[in-house]
UniProtKB/TrEMBL annotation:
SUPFAM superfamilies: Phase 1 flagellin (SSF64518). It comes from the Bacteria. It is found in: Bacterial flagellum basal body; Secreted. One of its GO terms (cellular component) is extracellular region. This is Flagellar hook-associated protein 1. Its main location: other.
Amino acid sequence: MSISNALANALTGLNAVSRAADVVSSNVANAMTEGYGRRDIELTSQQLGRTGSGVSVVGTTRYYDPVTTGERRDADAGVALENTRADFYDTYASAMGQADEASSIAGQITGLETALIEAASRPDSDARLSSVLTSAQNLSERINSASDKISDTRMAADAEIATTVDYLNKSLQQVVDLNVAIQAQVTQGYDANALKDQRQVLVDNIAKLVPINEVPQKNGMISLYTSGGVFLVDSKAATLEFNRTPTITPDMTVESGALSGLSINGHPVTTDAERGQIAGGELAGLFEVRDELAPQAQVELDALARDLIERFQTTDADPTLPAGAAGLFADGGAAFDPANEASLAGRISVNTLVDPSQGGDLWKLRDGLGATVEGDQGDATILNSLTEALQATRVAASGGMTSVERSALGFASEVYSLAQTSQLNAEANLSYVSAQQETLVGIEQAHGVDTDYEMQQLLIIEQSYAANAKVIQTIQTLMDQLMGI
């Protein structure tokens, strides 16, 4: 080997170890950076004619495991979906209140029952009659409050859908822009790995909202499709369309045209959280809350309100009631019409005939709502009838719980139990998918930056640098000796 070839080899070696040191320092610096893919320098030997001519840096390779990352993204979407469900059921159960709490719907029913029993023991006591009125008002107001909470949750879900759709549209366009930038870098021979890191973070965020499949394309570009087969990014970004509805009433649905569904590139897509075209992520979960979970909760509350109204809207409970008149509880001040059950939980109220603040008379609790004059103050017959009506077991007329006879307290406890059971199921599912997610994140991190390994590589680079520098120093000494001859 000639001195000039030896010098050239050493110089290429110094260049290679310099690039390698740059890659290692980048790995260490970004060990905690989200979306960063560990880099490795790619080297090859140079050949000049039949003689080796040192080493050449081909480029920098970014480590990426598409299978593990894809599975982790699916787990991210599953966590987002189950978290959305668990949050809703937590809100619903909280709106109902725990059955053993005095402030819950069940607790208020118990409070009304207690007040009626105490009033029956002293029917001449205005204080005890007033306690019955207060207990009935507290109960109706708590049911109203729970209904309002469900409506607020539904409107909040609709607003969140609109925000999520806007974010997705912006993010998908950013992926397209990064695709173009990466293609330009690759075709020009530049390092595009930093841009790929940015794109991975974007895709990870998109996958939490809508589960996606990533398909690699030429020159470093990618395409994105939903698990249901709808394209989101190809040569261009898809456009998601959704119109927010500021005020939502329980009767409003997508099928009736009162609520907006989701369209992609002008084509309506199914939003079923389990089998729809965007199934599995937070966006599908928000649609499920708005279109399925909240409406079902409203149906159950309306059935509870109906059961309560119908218990007292009979002559068995109050023999003085005229035909078609409202009992102790009314539908917005009027008698309940079975054809108008929707939103009943938001309208149930205490009959104004027994409320002095609205022109009524307390004594009508004792003497009957249809009484025209005050009767015997010691007669507790109707108060006892009202207590029996509250305690009586009957089959609910609606709400999907029509097979078993229940008291008013039993009905309220059953509705709360359903909400609590659904919450526990959602939390159990959330724990399962969270554990799966943590496992996959751990696998990803195991293939990420290992600072101990990088430090070992740095020691090897240092040794290689010293060796190449020693070659150059030796050649310099030889040249000096030759020049001195």
